[in-house]
Structure formats: C-alpha cells, structure tokens
Amino acid sequence: MESRMTRRETLLALLWLPIHVFGLPLLGTALYQRGTLTLGQINLLVYGIGALYMVAVQFGFLRRDFDTLCDNAPVVCIEVGRSFALLFISSLLVTGLFERVGLTQNENNDAVYAMATTELGPIAAAGTFLAPFVEECIFRGAIFGSLRRKNRALAYIVSVLLFSLYHVWQSALFDPMQLLYLLQYIPASLILVRCYERCDSIWGVIFVHMLNNGLPMLAISYLNP
C-alpha cells in the first residue's frame, strides 16, 4: 500500500482530532444555547472548518492520492461500487439484527434524522460532502495509515474501534447503554478500511463514505418534500 501521510501530515491530522471531537462541539453547544445558530448550522460550521483545515494541511497528501486515483481509475471505480454495495447490505443486516433484539434507540442516528427533517440543506451538505472528507483524513489517513506501518492488524482494530466510538460517545455520556450501538458501526468501519487499502487512495474511501451518507439524505428529501 503506497498511500500514506508523512509524519508531519499525520501529526497535523491527529492534532485536529480533539478539536473536532471536543473543542468545536463545545463551541457549537454554546452558540446553540445562546440562540446564535441552529443545530444544522452548527454541524455545517464544525465540518466546514474541519474541511478547510484538512485542505490546508493535507494538500500534499490529497494531491498525491488524487494522482493515484487517476492512475488507477478503473480499479478504484470497481472498488467504490463494491464497497458501497457492501455498506448498504451490511447496514440492512445490522439494523435488522438490532431490531430483533430490541435495540432501536440509536440516539446518534435519531438525532441526525431529526435534524435532517427540519434542516435538510445544512445537514445534507455537512453529512454528505464535508463529514466524509474530514473523517476519512483522520480515521483512515492518519490513524490507520500511521499504525499500518507497524502492525496491520492493530491498525484495523484501533481505527475501527475509534471510528465506531466516535459516533456514540456523546450519547453514551448520558446513557451508557448507547455504547452497545458501537457494534452497529463496526461492519461499516471495517468496510471503509478495506476500501482504503484496496483503492490505495484516500479519495476512493471518501467517495464511498459520501455515497453512504448521501443516500439517507436523498431518501429523507423524498419522504419530507
């Protein structure tokens, strides 16, 4: 696998993680409580700032991987399609399994759906285009990429668990049972890591992530015209 950040690029991506996970959400909460911004606008702000940061500090990495994307376009296109299909199927299976055991209150998914039904524009923009860009640079590019140089199995375990935990930790602070929904994100996390490896370009997995996030937004737009 040739796609990799330099040590400087990795450090800059990892430095953004606590800002993205803690700093900006705290700022957004304060702005929401003051009535300055809506939840949809806050999401757009958080991911918009993150995307601008990633473009600024990861331009070299993104350019190198874009060249790889162009050089291996047919392979990447096939893998993007295959990975998206796997994500779609795994989502149906995991959701069905969770429903069978009575786990139907994933607060992260419920919150995104609630926001999208009232503020589809900013939520769709943040979720479909900005979030995949920021999250893939951090979780696949920096975390998985840096650990893979030392231990591939460890890279899979750490990146998958952190990405899954990232989606549930806030709700789990108030309801520890929400940690069970971490399991709901593990199959998707594994598929995204696998896609990154097979595409050998961060752009391939970014496109898959965009498709995966964009499909629900499209469905919501039809259900709530």
Number of strands: 0
Q: What separation lies between the terminal Cα atoms?
A: 44 Å
Note the main sheet. Answer: none
**General form:** globular
Cα radius of gyration in angstroms: 17 Å
Notes on the structure:
The protein is mainly α and 225 residues long. 84% of the residues lie in helices and 0% in strands. It has helices at residues 7-33, 39-57, 59-71, 73-100, 107-118, 120-148, 152-166, 169-174, 182-199, 202-223. Helix 1 (7-33) runs antiparallel to helix 2 (39-57), helix 5 (107-118) runs antiparallel to helix 6 (120-148) and helix 9 (182-199) crosses helix 10 (202-223).
Concise description?
By secondary structure, this protein is an all-alpha fold.
Which properties best describe this structure?
225 residues
Break the fold down into its secondary structure elements and pairings.
Elements: H1 7-33, H2 39-57, H3 59-71, H4 73-100, H5 107-118, H6 120-148, H7 152-166, H8 169-174, H9 182-199, H10 202-223
